[in-house]
User: Fold Aspartate aminotransferase family protein from Dongia soli.
Amino acid sequence: MANLEAGVSTDKVTAMIRRESDHYTQRNPTSQRFAREAASHWHNGVPMHWMLDWSTPFPLFVADASGSTLTDVDGHKYDDFCLGDTGSMFGHSPAPVAAAIAEQARHGLTYMLPTEDVVEVGKLLTAKFGLPYWQVATTATDANRFVIRWCRGITKRNKILVFHGCYHGSCDDTFVRLKDGKPIHRPGLIGQVYDLTTHTKVVEFNDLPALETALKDRDVACVITEPALTNIGMVLPQPGYLEGLRQLTRKYGTLLVIDETHTISTGYGGYTRTHRLEPDFLTIGKPIAGGIPCSVYGCTAEMAAKMKEAETASGPGYSGMGTTLSANAMALKAMRANLEQVMTLAAYEHMLPLSERLARGIEAEIRKRNVPWHVSNVGARAEFVCAPERPRNGTEAQAAMHHKVELAIHLYLLNRGIIIAPFHNMTLVCPATTAAQVDHLIASVGACIDELQN
Assistant:
C-alpha cells in the first residue's frame, strides 16, 4: 500500500515536485539568467528575501502586470490569484490609480506638507470604514506599531495581547507564539535581543476563557487581532467569538485593535463594517492605495480625545510615531483614486460572488475525488487546505499544513499559468478577475489531485 500524506501518495508528491521543477527550469531560461546575475549583488539573489518563499527553483521575474494577469520575462501569462499577497487586491495598476500617479508625478512626490487630497481622503475613509479620525503611515507594520504605542500611552499599561498564529506585519511586539501552552518568540526571529514575552501575552484564537484569564490582571493595554486569522492559514471566528472578545476587552479596560490588512477582502468596508464590529482602533495596510506603499489607522472620537490627553501628558518632543514619507503627496493621490473609483461597492459585487464560485468549485473537485481537504473563504479571499477539518485556532491551522503537498500544488499550477499565494493555498479575486480564470483554476486543482492520487 502506498504511503499517504493529506490523502495523496507521497511518492507521487515527490515525483510531481521533481518533474514540475524541471519543467519550470526549462520554460523559464530568462528568469534563470536574471536570477544568476542578481545573485552577484543581492543577498540570496533577491532585493527582499520573501521573494524566495515561492515554490520555484529560482525566482520568477516579472515583465508586466495588468488587472488580474501577470506576464513573466519569458513571455508566459498567468492568471494571478495572489495579487501581490493582497497588495494588489483590486488588480494590478487600476487605471484610476495609474492616472493619479502620473498626474501627481508632475507636481512633486513628497514634501511633508498636506495637499487638497487630505481633505477628501479623510471623508472617504470615514464614509467607508465608519471611524471618524485617521492617520496615515507607510506600511501596516507602521500603523500597528503606532497604534500599540498609542494604546499604551492612553491606558498607561505595558502589555498587549495577540493570538497564536497572528500576523501584523513585522511589528516586533506581535512576534510571539505558543508552544506547549507557553509563550515563545516566533520561530525564525533574527536579532531579537530582549524578551518579547515580558510585554506580550498570547492565547489561542476562539478561546474566550483563555482570553479572560489573560485580561483579568488589567495590565493589557490592547488586544490586536485580525477578525479572522489569515496568515497561518485561514481560521474563522466561531459564532459569538468576536462579540465576546469585545465584551471582555471592555470589561477589563483593554482597547481593541482590529487589523483589516487582509480581511478587507470580506466586503465593502472590510470585516468590521460587514459584521458591525466596534473596535477602538482600526488598521489597514497593503491595498489601501492600490499598490503604492501606504497604510492608515482610524479611531473613535473617544480614542482621539484620549490621544490628545496622552500628548499633553507626554509634553513636547518626538512621539516615536511617524516617518518622513508617511502621508506623502503621491500616496494620498493614489489612495484618493483607489477609494473613490476602485475600492467601490460595485467592485465587491463582482468579487464576492466570483470568489464564492471559486471556493465552491474547488470544494466540488475535492469532494468528487474524496480527498480529506476543505475550503474556507472570507469574501474575496479563499483557501483550500490539505486537511479534513476547519481549524479553530492557530495550533490546529499549523498542524493542517503539509508543505511538500502544497509545494507540489503550487509548482503544478504555476506551470499551467496560475499563481496563488506562495505561503499557503490562498487565493484572491479582484475586479478584473474573470469567470474563465476562476474555472481554469478549479479545473487545474482537480487535475492536480488526479495526478497526486494513488
Summary: The two ends are 9 Å apart (CA to CA). DSSP finds 14 helices and 18 strands in the chain. The longest strand covers residues 220-225.
